[in-house]
Amino acid sequence: MDTRSVSSTWLDHVELLSSPTDDYKPAITADGTQVKVLLAMWGQDFIEQFFALSFPTLMAPGNLPGLAQEFPTEFVFLTGARDRKAIEAHPEFRQLKAVCAVSFLEIDDLIIGTNYSTTVTLAYTRAMRSQGDKMLDTYFVFMVSDYIMADGSLRNLAGYMRRGVSGVYAGNFQIAHDEVYRPLREWVDPKTHVATIPPRDLMRFALNHLHPVTIANFVDQPVSHNRHGNRLFWRIDDSTVAGRFFLMHMLCIKPELTDFQIGSSCDFSFIPELCPSGNVAYITDSDEYLVVEHQMFAHETGYLRGGPGSIEVLAHAFGDWSTEPHRKNANTMVVFHADGIPECTAEVERESQAYIDALVKKMPPANPYRGHKFWISAINDFVFELIRQNRMPAVMKRDGRDQGKPSYLRRKYWDIFGRAPHVTHWHYAWLDYKDLIASIETELADKDKKVALITDAINPVTLWLGRQDREIPQWRASGIAERGKTRVYGSERVDCVIILLEPSNAHLVDNLFRYLPKLVRPGARILLWISAAGDSNFDIDNFVASHSTHFFRSFVTLQSYKAARGERRRAAYQAMLRAQEMLRGGRLFRGFANALSGVVSGALENRKALRGSHLLTGKPISGLLEFKVTQKESVLRQQPGPKRTGTTEPVTEAEKKERALEEGTKETQYNNCLDVRDEVGFTRLGLMTNQVWHDDPRRLVFSLARYKFVSKMMSGRARVAELGCGDAFGSRIVLQEVGELSVFDFDPLFIDDVRERYSDHWPLKSAVHDILEGPLPGPFDGIYSLDVLEHIPQEKEHVYMDNLCAALDGKGIAIIGMPSLESQVHASPVSKEGHVNCKTGKDLKKLCERYFETVFVFSMNDEVVHTGYYPMAHYIIALCCHRKSGG
C-alpha cells in the first residue's frame, strides 16, 4: 500500500534498533559528572582519514587532553567489529589510550552501506541509552571523523559543563579537502603526531580554502546560491565572517530525562528531546570553539545554482524542512574571525537578523521535529535495506503484538481490525490484501521453494515478508529494470517472484518482464501487485490493458487478474491518511473524526464485497496479476534482455556489445566476471604501477613475482608489515597468505593513493612512516622491504636496520630485496640517480648477518627466483631469521 500509511507505525518500533546491547562495557563509571566522547566511524577510508587529519587536532593540549583533565573522560568508538580491530592496530591508538579511557560499542547491525545519518543517529542513541540512569550525570560530546579542531575548543567546552548547561550548540562550515590535505598534514608534529592549531590560524587558513557549498551560502556574494542549504553567511571584512545557522551541531548534551523518543535525525531532535527545559547554550565566538569540516570538492555541489538566490527561493528551500527549533537557532549569530572582531559587527548582526526575520515570514509552517518527514523517509529506506540484506534483528521479526506492552486500545484495535497485511473485513484495506496474502502464503507453505521479492517501497507486505524465518532475497525494482544490477544464474533461480509496484514505478514493468527469465525457474509463479491507494488519478485497469504486450510473452501465461475496487474504499483511504496527519499534528478531534469516517466507509464497501465482489464498481485501488512460467528451460534462455529506457535511437555496435554483456557471457562460468564488474567496478592500477604498465609492462611481471616469493616465505604469519610499499599494488598477493598486513611509506602521496583504492575485500592498513625517524609501530612477526635499502645512504643504513629490527617480535623474520650492484651497468640514468646504496649479494648478506643469526640470500633474474651465482643476478633477496639480541 502507500508507504505513508505504514511509516508512523514503523517508527513505533524503530526504538528497538537503538536499544542498548549486552556486549558494551564502559571503560569508566565515575561518581558524579563524567564525559563520554562519541565518535561514529566505520570503513578503512574514514579510519585512515580520521587518524591522518582529525585525530592530530583532537590530541592538541587544549582539546581532548584538556577535557580529560577537567572531568573523568571516556572516548567511545561506535564502529563495526572488523573496524574495531583496524582502529586498535593503528599506531596512534596507543596515544589515545594514554590520554583517556577508550571503549568500543559495536554497531554492525546498524551499518547498512547507505543512510549514514540514520546509522549515526541510532548509534548515538544506543550509546546514551547504554548508560542507563547514569546518562543523567553524563555529558555526551558528539564528534565527527572529518572535523579539524582548533586548539582549546574542548577545554573551553568544559566551562559550559561546569556551569551545568544541558546542551551546547555550535556552528561550523566546510573547507575543500582536495586543497587542504597536504597543508594540514604539515601542521602535524612528526614526533608527537599532534597538530596544535590556534583558532585564528585555523580560521585564516580556512578562509583561503572555502568549499563551494560554503561560498554558496554567503548572502552578500553574487556567484552562487544553495537550494539545499541550512545556514547563511555574511562577510564582515577580509578576516571575519558572520554565520546564521538553522541546522547547528549538537556539540554536547547532558540528558534531562532517560525516557525519550527519537523522531528525527540527531541534529534535528536531540536537543529538543533531551533538553526540554531549554537550558541550552550557543557558542558564538570562534576564539572559544572552532571546527571546520573538510569535504571533497564534489560533495553536495549538485544543489548549487549560479547567481544570487532570492529570498523567496531561500524561504522555500529552508522552509521545506526546518522545524521551530531550527528557526530559533537562526536568531543567534556566530562570529568566525582570524583577527580581532571589527566594530561593524554589531551592524551586520542587525542586518542579518532583519534578513532572517523576513526569510522566516515567507516560510510555510514549521515541520515537527518528532516524526519529521525526512526521518520517516530515512527510516523506511533504512528498514528496506535491512530487509533486502536479510539482516532484520530477531526482535523486529516478531509481530507487533509481541513488542513491548501495547496499550489496551491498541490491543482492541488489533482484535477488531487485525494488523496489516493480515486484516479483517472491518479494515478498509482488507480487499486489497486478501488475495495477495492468500497467494503468497500458498507459496510460503512449501519450505523448499525459493521465493524472492522485487520492490522499491516499504509497506506492510514488505515488512511481513522481512519477518519470515526463511531467507527471502529482496531486490530493488529500479535496479533490475533499469541497470540490470542483480544477476541470478542456474540453481540460484527462484520458484516464485513477488513484485510490488506503485504508480511512481509501475513503468518499470516492461523491463522487469524482459529480465525475469534470468531470475525464475521453469514452472515458477510470478505475483505482480500494483497499489494505487495514494494516487486517485492512476487507473490500474487502463495500465494493465495498455501494457498487455508485456504480459503475453512466450515464457509466461497470465492466469488471473483480480482488481480490488470500490469508490467508498478510495474515500476511506484518503480519510485515514488525513487522520494520521491530523493526529500527528495534535488535532485530535478532527483526526478521530476522519478515522471514523474511513473505518465506516471501508467496512461498508467490504461487506458489499463479501456478498459479491462483482457488484463493486469504480477504478481499482489495487490489482493482482498471477502468472505461470513455462516449463521449458530453452524458452527462458531465448528471452531478450532488458532494453534501454527513454530512447528510440538505433542501437550502436558498442551498445550491442554492452547488451550482450548484460545478458551474460556465452560460457556461463564466466558470468562472475560481470558480477564483479557490476557490484565492485573496475579496479584501477596504482600510481606507480600505472607508470610501469605504460612504459614497460614486463617490469610489472617481475615486481609481482617478488611479491609472490614474499607471500610464500611469510605464509601463516599473523601480523606482517611492508616497509616502502609505494602504491602497494602487489601487496594483496602477500595479504592472501598472512593474517593482517600493514603497509608503510614515507611519501604521503603514495599512501593517499593506497587509501583511495582501498577495498573492504582486501583490508590493507596503511600509514605514512619514515623508517629513518623511528621504528614501525609493531611488533610484527614479519617485515619485508623491497626496493628501499638502495635508496638509503650507506652512512644511515644502520638506522634503517635498527628501526626495522626494533619492530620485529622475538620470532619475527625479515625479507630485504634490492637491485644488485652488478645490475647497475644496465640501469637507466633515472634509476642510477636514486640508487645510492646498491650491494653485491655477499655485501647484503654481510650487512644482514650483523642483525640476524641466519640469513639466506636468493638471486633473481626477471621473474625467476633461484640460488645461482650472485654476480649474474639482476636482483637479490635476503631472508633473515633469528634476530640477534640487541639487534
What does this structure look like?
The chain is of the alpha/beta class and 887 residues long. 39% of the residues lie in helices and 20% in strands. The protein has 35 helices and 31 strands. The strands form 7 sheets. Strands 26-25-24-27-28-31-29-30 form an 8-stranded mixed beta sheet. It has a 7-stranded mixed beta sheet with strand order 3-2-1-4-11-6-12, sandwiched between helices. The termini are far apart. 41% of the residues are buried.
Strand-helix topology:
Elements: H1 4-11, E1 34-40, H2 44-58, H3 64-70, E2 73-79, H4 81-89, H5 93-99, E3 101-106, H6 116-129, E4 138-143, E5 147-149, H7 153-163, E6 167-170, E7 173-176, H8 177-186, H9 199-207, H10 212-216, E8 224-226, E9 231-237, E10 240-245, E11 249-253, H11 266-274, E12 280-282, E13 291-295, E14 304-306, H12 311-319, H13 324-329, E15 333-337, H14 345-361, H15 373-388, H16 394-397, H17 408-417, E16 418-419, E17 422-423, H18 430-444, E18 451-455, H19 460-466, E19 474-475, H20 477-483, E20 494-501, H21 509-515, E21 520-531, H22 540-546, H23 548-551, E22 556-564, H24 567-584, H25 588-612, E23 622-629, H26 633-637, H27 653-663, H28 671-679, H29 687-695, H30 697-714, E24 719-723, H31 731-735, E25 740-745, H32 748-756, E26 765-768, E27 780-786, H33 797-806, E28 808-819, H34 829-834, H35 841-848, E29 852-861, E30 864-866, E31 875-883
Parallel strand pairs: 1-2, 1-4, 2-3, 6-12, 7-13, 18-19, 18-20, 20-21, 24-25, 24-27, 25-26, 27-28
Antiparallel strand pairs: 4-11, 5-13, 6-11, 8-14, 9-10, 10-15, 16-17, 21-23, 22-23, 28-31, 29-30, 29-31
Helix pairs in contact: 1-15, 3-7, 12-14, 15-19, 20-21, 24-25, 29-30
